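Researcher: Next entry in the queue.
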Amino acid sequence: MNKIDFSIKRVNLAIIIISSLMMLIVLNLPFKAKPFGDITFHIESKNLALFIKGKTSYDKVVITKAPGPIIFYTPVYLLAPDDATDNQLWVYGVVFTSIIITISLILIFRIGFSFFSKEVGLLSVLLFFIFPIHCYYSLGILAEAPAFFSLALAIYGWSIAFAEPKKISGWIILTLGMWFLILNRPNTLLLLGLICLVILYSFFKNKLFFKKYGKKLGLTVLIVSIMGIGVLQLAKNITGNEFSSSQDSLLYYVAHQGRFQFREEPTDFRFWDNEVRSDSKDYQNWVKSTEVLSAVVTTSKSSNEVYRKFLIDDAIEHPYWFTRQFFVKCFYGHVYFINSVQPDEFDLGPLKGPVGYWIFILIVNSINLIIVVGAILFLFNEKNLIHYWIFWGVIISLLIFHGLTYMEPRYIFPSRVALYIMSAAGLYRIHWIQKAINKISIYMFPNRIKSDFNN
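Model: Structure for this entry, 455 residues:
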């Protein structure tokens, strides 16, 4: 564990400059994330900001999905003029998101430095610049960016707490990061359960870890749970009875959707919507199943009861499909395809048409595969994995949840904070990569910083 000298301004400046350039490059690519996602977070943040300004009535204020993005974007929208258009609000939101993502990269460097070395911290950031998916998700009013920042904040807090367990600031940052992560991505609630398993394991198998961190981690879980439940309940009260069960209904909806994703077409990675997948057997069967279940809902039981019964019965009746779908979804969560542009319309420099499209997809996913391989190398070679519980814990939590429900790569995106740092630690073990990074480090760190001790 290395104690960081925060006088390293050269790296911070490089991250700011390169991030700004990467944002501009990605902004001008022929394919982009949807500016407002599914529009929900944008509309609800805008209405809350207008209500706070006294420009709209309270009945317009609702929080139908995760409250985290509303908390994230509303303060920014408050800075905009009262009559700002959606496009103007998008600019405010994206500028703020870009700043937050850049701060996240600075935190990622410091995390890598703290747990491993300045070279690993540098490589962690370089991996993001080689595959700038963080820039792509910064250009929309989405939950991905605030969730990404939340995890970076949480792991940064853990790096401080791990080095100095008695230092309260680390535990506060860890708690706030995990709390905001859950508010942005409630599907990471499984992480709290994994922490409990880590505490239980350390009690029996690693007394030193338990003595240093066990009780404080337990208190962190308790505080995050109370704060998380409190905000979710507040959001439900704000929304009122009209949408009081929307979170449960949404969960059953996506779980039902997921029961048909890769069901009989395990290699069809096209985006799940009517425009792209209208000819898909799985998509058509999902539509038919929705119609059948909707008919049952209108004649007898509630929607949640009907969907719950279907999900349980279907998993029991089709165990092979259920198992295969789980692993295909976990794989799909780590690969990327472009859905906003058809292969025939693809035009990126010398890469044009279907051939250019598939060459680009191959390059992108080859880089992605190398990053995953690096993380696997780290996990197989690291003897003290319990020290890195939040790294692998958040990835496992998201894979389990979306492997059992519905998967899109963007749902796994926040975990790339952990994935890239682990990957950098793993790849740095490879001699030629280590040699290359060491050469770059000479220019980035002209003044050698001695480590207090190595982990």
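Model: The longest strand covers residues 347-348.
Researcher: Noted, moving on.
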